[in-house]
Protein: Glutamate--tRNA ligase
Organism: Thermodesulfovibrio aggregans
Amino acid sequence: MVRVRFAPSPTGHLHIGGARTALFNWLFARHHNGKFILRIEDTDRSRSTEEYIESIIEALKWLGLNWDEGPFRQTDRMEIYKKYAYKLLEEGKAYRCYCSPEELEERRQKAMKEGKPPRYDRRCREIVEPLDKPFAIRFKMPLEGETVINDIVKGTVTFKNSELEDLVILRSDGTPTYNFCVVVDDYEMEITHVIRGEDHLNNTPKQIHIYRALGINPPEFAHIPMILGKDRSRLSKRHGATSVLAYRDEGYISDAVVNYLARLGWSHGDQEIFTREELIKYFDLEHVGKANAVFDSEKLLWLNSEYIKLTPEEKLFELVKPFLIKEGYLKENETIDLEWVCKAIKSLKERCRTLKELANAMRYYFLDYVDIDPKAKEKHITSDTIPILKEVTAKLAELEDFTQDNIEKIFMNIVNEKGLKLGQVAQPVRVAITGNTVSPGIYEVLEIVGKDKTLKRLRRILNDFE
């Protein structure tokens, strides 16, 4: 059975790169009816926090990347790592290193000044009898030959063993190191495929030698390309690459973010928009490209707007509801007419790129009164348009069946009787009702706003002008 894992270090929030790695693992597992395991690599106690662990889990849940096992935490598994480290020590595949951090740093600086690689010089490798002083445990890397990795994405990658350092696997304080924990965990969790960013490629030969020393067959490796900004530099906040939860808070739909992430480095023909079911059906590692992917925040925004258009109004209401509550347009447990709110959403969803935009656009459907843009007011609420607004108000007040068709008849009668253009009637009313010069069709807007709120706003304008 295919078993993959996503193993974030909780030293920050889940960002776009990590989310894409999690998604590729999740899709691979679901495509092969395998297992997706969540592992928290929190051995860096100085930088790992509970807040970040909770944030990562919350982001994965929002993205809909459900895991089958875990979350496992490395800090709960310390004794397991020690057991394997001492096993290698006893078998002569690792050795005690007595060098202090200060000595190691001094030698590192000296090597750099001399233009040499700042690698450990293996001076403790041949010490046979244990010394009575603190020690770390280092792994014995082979000194000759090559390590060949047949990477599913990158192809054949070769490393010279002479360039691999004898890495510490257990520090002198008893804590294990990253490369060692990864091997032990992947073995114990029966991981069959390691799918991760290509920035981990240089760790792979070290890990392969630890696997072999433990008598374990390594999993298959797939190192996926990096994500760059449009300027081809490493992705950062200036490219819009904030945390995944920041996209949620800005009003992105999780399905749209998942769709966009899937297309960062993977393709299926020319198709751009996928359902989750389609992503699971089509996803494979063979169609992950070797070239770095480029993050385009405008394209993500476009895709999100497409998802808003495609989402049924009832579901869209559930998604936009938290934003309506946050803006104060809706109370937490307020009962609302679902048919009415779906009409309101339908009138606006083609115009909005995010749920946040949609919530703000809906304000004039919920509020009794709206703030009017000063420039719009100056241009359209004038001594010339007030008589028109008075007549519209009077006619609408007489209207019993407040529907688009009946509202249109009133407007067209005024246009024809006074020899006006429709905009001369519609635009002042639009500004009075919505606070701005742009909205869906005025008849549709008035019907959804309703007779009471429409008359309240028009009368307020008239009263303010007297």
